[in-house]
Write a structure and sequence with these properties.
- Strand 3 and strand 4 form a beta hairpin.
- The protein is built from 3 helices and 9 strands, in the order βααββββββββα.
- It is elongated, with a radius of gyration of 23 Å.
- The protein folds into 2 domains: 93 residues, PH-domain like (Roll); 54 residues.
- The protein has a 5-stranded mixed beta sheet, covered by helices on one side. Strands 1-2-3-4 form a 4-stranded antiparallel beta sheet.
- The protein has 174 residues and is α+β, with helices and mostly antiparallel strands.
- Helix 1 runs antiparallel to helix 2.
């Protein structure tokens, strides 16, 4: 089914799928991680390569190497972590990197509501009021209440498009 557009233009296709990818955008987190990585790299080069100990009681060489490796792996892992929200007419599917994945059929869902997110922090966590929260730092979220009473809150940076899609598939009331 297509919607007829203005004369001479292509028909407009209704959205059959909503797809959103969110990355972690907390600048303070990135400053801390990159600062730690630079510190451990500088201290390792100074102490191991040039023989200049950092401070009066320097860390052992193995600890400096572990510090470089750990902060580098953590920085890369967090940079690659994305919250992916994929909705179609059959289901809601969420992937949040190493923090988990979730698939729900629409018949398992009691209600949907788009709300303003309170300050909940980043990542996956349990919240007394909102249940399981998946937050990549957005200001709004999709609150999903399941028929079994469980709640899930998923952050979104594209509120209007999400509302439009949910109304189109008749899962969100006007």
């Amino acid at each position: 089914m297509s919607i007829i557009a203005a004369k001479g233009k292509q028909p407009i296709q209704p959205m059959k799928r909503y797809y959103e990818v969110q990355s972690l955008r907390n600048w303070l987190l990135w400053i801390i991680l990159i600062g730690l990585l630079l510190f451990f790299t500088f201290a390792s080069l100074s102490q191991i390569v040039f023989g200049l100990a950092i401070g009066s009681n320097p860390m052992p060489n193995w600890a400096l190497i572990v510090g470089v490796i750990f902060t580098a792996v953590l920085t890369v892992a967090l940079a690659r972590t994305q919250l992916i929200l994929d909705l179609d007419s059959e289901q809601l599917h969420l992937t949040f990197g190493p923090l988990g994945a979730l698939s729900l059929k629409w018949n398992e869902i009691k209600s949907l509501k788009i709300i303003k997110l309170p300050r909940l922090g980043y990542g996956k966590r349990q919240h007394q009021k909102y249940g399981t929260v998946y937050n990549a730092g957005a200001k709004e979220g999709l609150l999903v209440e399941l028929k079994n009473g469980a709640k899930i809150l998923i952050s979104t940076r594209r509120k209007k498009e999400l509302q439009e899609f949910l109304r189109l598939i008749k899962k969100l009331k006007a």
